[in-house]
Amino acid sequence: MPESYLVIGGSGFLGSHIVDGLLNRGESSVAVFDIVQRVFDDRITFFNGDICNEKQLSDAISRCQASVIIHTATPSPEAPKEILERVNVQGTQTIIAACIANSVPKLVFTSSAGVVFNRNNIVDADERLPFPQSEEAYNKTKQMAEDIVLAANGKDGLATCALRPAGIFGPRDRLMMPSAAQVVTRGQWKIQIGKNDNIFDWTYVDNVVVAHLLACDKLSITEVPIANEDLGVALPQITL
Ligand code: NAD
Questions:
Q1: pLDDT (tens digit, 9 = 90+) per residue, 12-56?
Q2: Whole-angstrom Cα distance, residue 143 to residue 166?
Q3: Lower CB density within 10 Å: C or N end of the chain?
Q4: Would residue 195 show up in a list of annotated catalytic residues for this protein?
Q5: Ligand 1 midpoint to CA 166 (Å)
Q6: Residue ranges of domains in the chain, CATH in brackets
Q7: pLDDT tens digits, residue range 174-189?
Q8: Distance, CA 198 to ligand 1 centroid (Å)?
């Protein structure tokens, strides 16, 4: 049976590229759920709605008969704390409830590398690195959303996973490169903080799309070890 995909946040930078990736590989059932419409393509069904509204979500899921949901929606990292909490936490809970109510088998969640940001250099970290106490509302609410998504894995036939991209760049980026360009246009590029030895991970958007499509294809309900000790291996050294 071919899958039916619903990309939540599919009008956004990453979401719209995921939609392109699905269409380019020949998927015949691709839908978008978003509060705004920025993607106009006859091959896509668009549902206008808010992820905090379970009725709107459930209607969309049942109308497109979604078998795979990709949840990329988020407010801007600079949005007020209340909005970040509402959309990232309450919205993600609502998505899980709607998935279960509609017997959706697969949910792929776009988390963020920010969930493990601890104000120190992090090198060679993997998913065993525990969440630090986070003061930034964006990182904190992404941590909470990831917890909600992973806790739902295996419940009522729903398989879930979370991917943590670092900085994403590419066409249609409205956040990272525009901010960097603003620094230049404001003449702030002569200011240097630190010794110029800081590093940051960047991933081209098409590679993040591939990761999402692979997750959609490979996701199934499996038992995963929860505690680091269960793995029987030491955590890699992560701070410089
Ligand atoms: P974006 O702002 O371009 O897209 C987010 C989309 O979510 C927008 O289209 C927006 O309208 C939609 N949305 C927001 N609130 C909604 C709501 N209540 N209901 C329905 N839709 C809603 O953001 P992006 O850069 O494409 O990020 C996508 C995902 O990738 C996010 O989860 C983000 O945390 C994650 N991420 C992004 C980066 C990056 O560098 N851009 C890095 C790491 C992780």
A1: 999 999 999 999 999 999 999 999 999 899 999 999 999 999 999
A2: 14
A3: N
A4: no
A5: 13
A6: 5-172+198-231 (3.40.50.720)
A7: 988 888 889 889 988 7
A8: 26
